[in-house]
What we know:
Helix 1 packs parallel to helix 5 (about 125-135). The model has no long low-confidence stretch (mean pLDDT about 95). The chain is globular and about 40 Å long. Strand 1 and strand 2 (about 95-100) form a beta hairpin. The protein is built from five helices and four strands. The protein is of the alpha+beta class and about 140 residues long. The longest helix is centred in the C-terminal third of the chain and has 14 residues, at about 125-135. About 40% of the residues lie in helices and about 15% in strands. The chain has a four-stranded antiparallel β-sheet with strand order 1-2-3-4. The protein has helices at about 5-10, 25-35, 40-50, 70-80, 125-135; strands at about 85-90, 95-100, 105-110, 115-120.
Amino acid sequence: MNQELRIAIKRHESIGDFTYPIVEDKLISEAEHKLCLVLPISYIEFLKEFGHGGLDGIETFGIGKNNQLIFVDETLKYRNLGLPHNFIVIENCDEWLYCLDSNNGQIITWTYNETPEFSFNSFDEYLQCRINDAIDNM
Length: 138
């Protein structure tokens, strides 16, 4: 994650926008084990630095204050509806989900019974765009 994005988040966030849990490598390993995949480094960086949350109603799934693996719970829930096993749910936009493809690090939009669509090249690109959207709408 680039420094410019970190500064933008810090400048515009309110108390409670992010969980800021203490995330140890053991918790990351537990999440990877439960999902049977490897998390991309850029997403691990977000989890360790911010945990879970976002700005102005945009919520990127991650790890709660009590070390709840929110993204794991969401991913397992949607796997029961046909979500591909290499996808990690990172945001629910009601009509679709933003998912991180663990095979290539790209962000895909997924909707039940529809073909997944490419959205962003990386988690960092997704986060930059979503945070910028939130800031523009404040």
